[in-house]
Design a protein that fits this description.
Length: about 350
């Protein structure tokens, strides 16, 4: 460990271009002098420490890991197939953990310190990082990384995995192609983004799609324009909200709009967009049932303060055609309900 830290420090303070190939070559050269019999084994660890998240990088390369959770420098947990387990990884100190976070957020124009103790970032592979440091966290820095993974590549694969029934898959495919508006609801880690990706991939290539996300995770084929929100910089300027992106999207001549997740007053702008010629759009929301999904969307839209409860409710009920409830139980994800929404807001029978 001492050799890795020493060589990594030498490279970081030197003039080597911060490109993986250059760092790897320099690491191998220095390791042949510092640890000649282990140079081949240690090169990757040095590169990870210089460019990435150090001891977390091997975990992020594990295809079975969906979440990496760091509770201070000495306690790292991973989620594999829905089960949490302690990982054999650690940092030497709080300072080393913070330095690793700063390395990956600095190129994004973000920072984390006592005056700005929380940060959200999208890593190059699409994974989402959220970090909290003192004084917001009481004992030590906390880091949570949700890995981007699209292991399921089709609705047919969902059927084979038992996530959806054959009739549900057929109904969803037909709904997308006939330009029905679909809201995917569920809890954290239930698979909402994965399902949204699969539904979006069914949109014909002849249609122009604008995607709007907090962190750009969707990977869609066809004519796609991707927009991404951004937090304010250190001076408190430069914030780009989902709501402002939704308004911009309407000027980009979209056939459909896909919002990665509705969690604030942008729900009102989405409802307006759905009622002004953008049928067949898709989004997700955190909720425990189709009924609660509608209630949550209504509440979020009303938080914008620009309209009345009656107006929001009528437009929402007219805009949404289907609500898909997806849930996670241990390692399994399953569509628990596929419900229709009537013009009066009545939730129809599961399909």
């Amino acid at each position: 460990m001492g050799v890795i830290e020493r060589v990594a420090g030498q490279i970081a303070s030197g003039s080597v271009p911060m490109r993986r190939a250059d760092v790897a070559a320099e690491a191998e050269r220095r390791l042949r002098l510092a640890a000649p019999y282990r140079a081949g084994q240690l090169t990757g660890a040095v590169v990870d420490r210089v460019l990435g998240l150090g001891p977390l990088e091997p975990l992020l390369r594990d295809p079975e890991v969906t979440d990496v959770l760091v509770n201070g420098p000495k306690e790292v947990w991973v989620d594999r197939r829905g089960e949490l387990s302690r990982a054999d990884a650690s940092f030497a100190s709080n300072e080393e953990l913070l330095a690793a976070v700063e390395r990956v957020i600095a190129p994004l124009g973000l920072r984390i310190d006592r005056s700005c103790p929380m940060v959200d970032a999208r890593l190059p592979d699409g994974s989402r990082l959220h970090a909290v440091t003192p004084p917001a966290s009481v004992d030590h820095p906390i880091v949570a990384i949700r890995r981007f993974s699209q292991a399921v590549i089709s609705l047919e694969a969902l059927v084979s995995l038992g996530t959806a029934s054959e009739s549900q898959a057929m109904t969803l495919a037909a709904a997308v192609r006939s330009r029905k508006t679909i809201i995917v609801s569920g809890g954290t880690g239930a698979g909402k983004t994965t399902l949204l990706n699969l539904l979006g991939s069914l949109i014909p290539d002849t249609e122009r799609v604008v995607t709007i996300e907090d962190a750009a995770e969707l990977r869609l084929p066809g004519h796609v324009v991707r927009l991404e929100a951004h937090p304010p910089n250190a001076e408190g300027a430069g914030e780009i909200t989902i709501r402002s992106l939704l308004r911009s999207a309407l000027r980009l001549r979209p056939d459909r709009i896909i919002v990665g997740e509705v969690r604030g007053p942008e729900a009102l702008d989405l409802v307006w967009a759905l009622n002004t010629g953008h049928r067949g759009s898709l989004s997700t929301v955190h909720a425990n049932s189709p009924e609660e999904a509608l209630w949550r969307l209504e509440t979020l839209a009303l938080s914008a303060g620009d309209t009345s409860e009656t107006t929001v409710r009528r437009q929402l009920h007219a805009a949404v055609d289907y609500i898909v409830q997806i849930e996670r139980t241990g390692p399994e994800r399953r569509i628990r309900a596929l419900a229709t929404v009537g013009s009066n807001g009545e939730i129809g029978d599961d399909l």
